């Protein structure tokens, strides 16, 4: 177990700043890596198509391995293809502090989602190597397999098996649209490694990522201190009315599934707004979906999120109540919860290290919760974890137009480095099990 | 021009009843024809697939021609494939009274939509032939080409060219999904006839059809006296918001196209209900339509109908106003009218003949407007016209489960016969032009 190394005199911010003063990441070098790897699977519109375990993924993995080994790191690969580049610390008895994210992208993904978290880690290793600075803990830079879930569902598969959330056999059996399994795809690109999945234990993990939302940009903050990941519940709703002729069915005898679905959409918005959470109907299908036919059936999704599981319970209850109320009319409704993820609070010490790091550089920052899932949310189950967000233009992500500035990427990488250094000095290392 | 032959003493209901007393259609014979022809293109689920100008359409046309000729009728076909079976009247100077509908169906159509109107006409010809009754006017039983518009768009094509609504060249050029034109398809089944389209002029036309709505069934009426066809306007609405992440976009900064579309759906319902008309959003597409993405774009249809064009103008204005109001928010909306059909009022004398016929048999009836388009709505532009509706189960139509009883079909056919007889005696014939 880890705890604050209180009263040693070197854990105050001034001492930390002294150490950190000499360690400045090279923004241009980081930007150069981002642009260089963006060409691996680069699209005409300036995005990246680098699906998990594809030939493009193999190429970026090879690039990553070569760069890490050039810095003197030993690179190991586990059975899920997760890659670990280890830089020794002063104390070989300590578990490593992990940094990293993922190098795979959406089919029409951007240049920053995931990639930034890995390449900022590489930049940190370079900075440490250039100044010959050695941390107390070893450091490990991680590239997690299939975070996006775009080729193989579900998302965050590599970190999920690492954290014991998914069984390895389940993960190996997942297939892409062409029926190719994860296992086959790992072998095809030569990235099924020999290390047992989950055998690499972390003293902590820090993940830098773009926000994928508009909050930081809207408030002109450079750094998001991520306190956790919102709880999330996914529902399927089926509204069953009666298909009938738009010309000959009087308004008062209709059983219009879409009119009721529309009413529900308004109620979902009201529930989320009242609770200070989020509620979204993102998917909706109408049957028969013909201009002159009163809709007989609507199938729709409801996505509810909140930073507090009790509030999420209350939102769920309110949704059930509205569904029951609407079902008293001439149309029937069914509600099925298909998935839920509880709130994942990040580790207080890790979050505190991120906050201190942002403060040290004077970056305008705010605390927030992640609305999206991340590898860090899986890792949080097995190690103290936190995340750092930087803004991205208009919150746009999973899109070739995804955009961040060099300055934002640099601020994120610097905060990541400083958070690791602060944590490295503050925390008494855990002994290997 | 035609007018009531007032003061001749034989136009009162009693005199009409005397004539009609001997002329009773044979319900079983009619039902037999319905079931026999339902086998031509019959589906496993009890419906009919008999697309316009298909091989199945050729077979039912051949069947129809043979039956009509067996009754001594001369069958002619015009250039659009519209079929006319003429039974001479007492006065060869008079234009014929037309009865009929269409024998084509939807891809998964029912056994009654259109077919009933033609086969009830055939049953009427048989009844007249069996009793050797001769009307003053010639009668003409019509099978209109491509009423459904399922294979070739638009619908009501044959009657549309007949009435001068569509140009023949336009109609010939319409293509099905395989690129086969109407002209080619007519030739392929040997039903491009030699008669100039529109050359057959009518003293009047009566069309029997299933209601395709629930009003008659709900009110337990056997006969609908159709006073006209509702006016109809079709609009396309595009709602443009901003696609964003469902987890990381706060409710207050969203530009959710579906939330606004849902609001509009409620307003369309309110507009229609307040005006005593009909308003339907039957088609709606969400982009990107992904569970965890706030919808960026919604494309939807709006269908407005009313029996009064002035009310339809007011409904349109209200829709424009609501679109403008919603467009003041963070999402933009556009409204495009893509099609309109004005109200088609049927001929007062023809409607009166239908009402007298229903009363003569003591059938419970009500006056109503047709919500759907029909060949009669086209013919109304060139001849006095009315329609007769019978109930169908739950208003279901364009569906293999479309259903009517033998008694309902018989009541419709009897009313059709009696309306023709009443009109034949009441009206001074128009002279051919």
TrEMBL record, chains A, B:
Occurrences of domain Peptidase M20 dimerisation (ranges): 229-325
Top-level division of the source organism's lineage: Bacteria
Pfam families the UniProt entry points to: M20_dimer, Peptidase_M20
Keyword Zinc found: yes
Cofactor(s) annotated in UniProt: Zn(2+)
Positions contributing to Zn(2+) 1 binding: 102, 113, 209
Claim: Zinc is one of the keywords in the record: yes
InterPro entries named in the record: Amidase_Cbmase, Bact_exopeptidase_dim_dom, Peptidase_M20, Peptidase_M20_dimer
Binding positions (Zn(2+) 2): 113, 148, 398
Cofactor remark from the record: Binds 2 Zn(2+) ions per subunit.
GO molecular function: hydrolase activity, acting on carbon-nitrogen (but not peptide) bonds, in linear amidines; metal ion binding; N-carbamoyl-L-amino-acid hydrolase activity
UniProt keyword terms in alphabetical order: Hydrolase, Metal-binding, Zinc
EC number(s) given by UniProt: 3.5.1.87
Family under the similarity heading: Belongs to the peptidase M20 family.
Protein name per the record: N-carbamoyl-L-amino-acid hydrolase
Organism: Amorphus orientalis
Lineage: Bacteria, Pseudomonadati, Pseudomonadota, Alphaproteobacteria, Hyphomicrobiales
């Amino acid at each position: 177990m880890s705890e604050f190394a209180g009263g040693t005199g070197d854990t105050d911010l001034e001492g930390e700043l002294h150490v950190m003063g000499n360690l400045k990441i090279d923004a241009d070098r980081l930007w150069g890596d981002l642009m260089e790897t963006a060409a691996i699977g680069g699209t005409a519109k300036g995005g990246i198509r680098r699906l998990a375990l594809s030939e493009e993924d193999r190429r970026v993995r090879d690039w990553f391995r070569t760069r890490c080994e050039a810095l003197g790191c030993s690179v190991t690969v586990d059975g899920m293809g997760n890659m670990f580049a280890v830089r020794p610390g002063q104390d070989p008895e300590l578990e490593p502090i992990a940094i990293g994210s993922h190098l795979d992208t959406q089919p029409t993904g951007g240049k920053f989602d995931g990639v930034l978290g890995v390449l900022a880690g590489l930049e940190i290793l370079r900075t440490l190597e250039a100044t010959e600075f050695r941390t107390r803990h070893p450091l490990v830079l991680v590239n997690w397999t299939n975070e996006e879930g775009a080729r193989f569902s579900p998302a965050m598969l590599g970190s999920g098996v690492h954290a014991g959330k998914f069984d390895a056999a389940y993960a190996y059996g997942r297939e892409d649209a062409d029926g190719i399994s994860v296992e086959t795809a790992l072998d095809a690109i030569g990235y099924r490694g020999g290390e047992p999945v989950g055998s690499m234990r972390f003293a902590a993990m820090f993940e830098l990522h773009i926000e994928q939302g508009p909050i930081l940009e809207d408030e002109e903050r450079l750094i998001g201190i991520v306190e956790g990941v919102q709880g999330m519940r996914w529902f399927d709703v089926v509204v069953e009315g009666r298909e009938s002729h738009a010309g000959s069915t009087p308004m008062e005898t209709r059983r219009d599934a879409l009119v009721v679905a529309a009413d529900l959409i308004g109620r979902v918005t009201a529930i989320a707004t009242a609770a200070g959470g989020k509620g979204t109907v993102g998917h909706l299908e109408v049957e028969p979906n013909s201009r002159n036919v009163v809709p007989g059936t609507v199938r729709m999704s409801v996505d509810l999120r909140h930073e507090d599981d009790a509030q999420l319970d209350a939102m769920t209850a309110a949704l059930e109540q509205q569904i029951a109320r609407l079902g008293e009319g001439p149309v029937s409704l069914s509600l099925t919860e298909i998935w839920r993820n509880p709130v994942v609070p990040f580790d207080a010490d890790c979050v505190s290290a991120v906050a201190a790091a942002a403060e040290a550089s004077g970056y305008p920052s705010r605390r927030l919760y992640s609305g999206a899932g991340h590898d860090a949310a899986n890792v949080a189950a097995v190690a103290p974890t936190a995340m750092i967000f930087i803004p991205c233009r208009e919150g746009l992500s999973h899109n070739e137009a995804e955009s961040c500035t060099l300055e934002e990427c640099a601020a994120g990488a610097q905060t990541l480095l400083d958070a690791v250094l602060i944590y490295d000095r503050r925390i008494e290392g855990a002994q290997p099990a």
